[in-house]
Backbone:
């Protein structure tokens, strides 16, 4: 059975696994090239991951001053972007965070299905779409890994990539699921 249907096996049917296709209205790009640079630089507004039924707002996280230290705010029912990292389409790594679950502070569970991507990419490509004010960017997942929270650091890349992070496992949260994806296509949006 295709892993994307594990959460609802009675709907799986016998559909074949998908292939590495790009929608007709998107232009394939080389994540290391600057051919789409005129579109990049805008912050993400929406994120979609069809394989896990994610359709979410993206918000820029803020720095919280704790007196003797500083930390990033936590995303509240949204996908949070670290604003000092790359925006969609830029030749660097953009970092996005979301909760697996958060009963205590009621900040949502926007990335509750992110851990499922590790199994999905073994058989099918998983694509992530980020929409800005002027374009929609399509990223393809290249890996999913599990790290101890002390081993996570915000790394840079020289090509257009994104990293998605959530806590793991449920109720313990001492590890991080890290999903990495590379830019494969872009769709310019019509001017409003």
Residues:
């Amino acid at each position: 059975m295709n892993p994307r249907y594990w959460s609802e096996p009675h709907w799986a049917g016998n559909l074949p696994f998908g292939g590495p296709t790009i929608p007709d209205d998107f232009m394939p790009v080389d994540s290391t090239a600057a051919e789409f640079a005129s579109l990049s630089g805008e912050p993400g507004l929406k994120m979609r991951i069809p394989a896990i039924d994610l359709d979410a707002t993206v918000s820029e996280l803020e720095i919280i001053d704790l007196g003797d230290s500083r930390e990033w705010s936590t995303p509240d029912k949204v996908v949070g972007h670290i604003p000092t990292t790359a925006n969609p389409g830029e030749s660097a790594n953009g970092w996005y965070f979301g909760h697996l679950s958060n009963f205590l502070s009621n900040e949502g569970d926007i990335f509750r299905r992110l851990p499922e991507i590790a199994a999905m990419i073994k058989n099918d490509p998983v694509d992530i779409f980020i929409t800005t004010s002027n374009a929609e960017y399509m990223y393809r997942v290249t890996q999913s890994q599990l790290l101890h929270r002390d081993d996570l650091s915000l790394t840079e890349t020289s090509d257009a990539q994104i990293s998605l992070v959530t806590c793991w496992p449920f109720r313990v949260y001492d590890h991080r699921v890290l999903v990495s994806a590379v830019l494969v296509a872009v769709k310019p949006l019509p001017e409003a």
In short: The chain has a mean pLDDT of 85.
